[in-house]
Amino acid sequence: MRAINKVTSAAAVAGLAVALLPGVAAAAPSAGPGPVVTARPGVGKSKVSVRDVITCKITAHNPHYSHHAHAADKHRVNVTADVKCSKKVASIRLKVVLYKNGQKYKESGWKTATGKNRVSQNAARRCVKKQTYRAQALATVAFPPGYRPPTASGTAWSASVRINACKKS
Questions:
Q1: How many CA atoms lie within 13 A of 57 on its CB side?
Q2: DSSP single-letter state for residue 67
Q3: What is the DSSP string of 44-64?
């Protein structure tokens, strides 16, 4: 079962009105592409062109056995996440958390990109076979001066993935 959290701006409000569409599962965070954060030029703009809107998508990719780390004592489960914006923004901060069987297993540090439109980050730790892994991406976007809201945050979740074997297929 996959659900989507989406954060969007309301056209009737000069700033950003945030509406969160809840996931289908009530007990667990929703899986899927993650939220989309949007900002529009602020005060003084009576009509806003679609070209002026900045949209940023937060994605937590599914955990996987890391084939590129396949070497002696390098069996790793890896997860990546990214934030991609339609235009360059003031800054993007991204952190990735890897969970094993619902417990925090590895947390990356914050990665920041300034004056860019994208950033990616990963978290990796020793692979333990026959376990279920899930990833969470936490992001904050600071939009350029004059955009409303000035910042927006969101969280994305990957699907839960069972890794039965920690070896190269």
A1: 8
A2: G
A3: T-SS--GGG-EEEEEEEPPPE
Record the tokens describing residue 44, joined without a space. Answer: 């003084």
Q: Could you please report the per-residue DSSP string of 134-151?
A: EEEEEEEEEPPTTEESSE
φ and ψ at residue 52, rounded to 5 degrees = -85, -20
Task: Break the chain into its structural domains and give their ranges.
Answer: 7-163
CATH class of the structural domain 7-163? mainly beta
Token representation of residue 98: 């890897």
Radius of gyration of the chain (CA): 18
Contact of 81 with 108, CB cutoff 8 Å: no
Q: Name the average pLDDT for the chain.
A: 78
Region 133-156: what's the mean pLDDT? 95
54, 16 in Cβ contact below 8 A? no
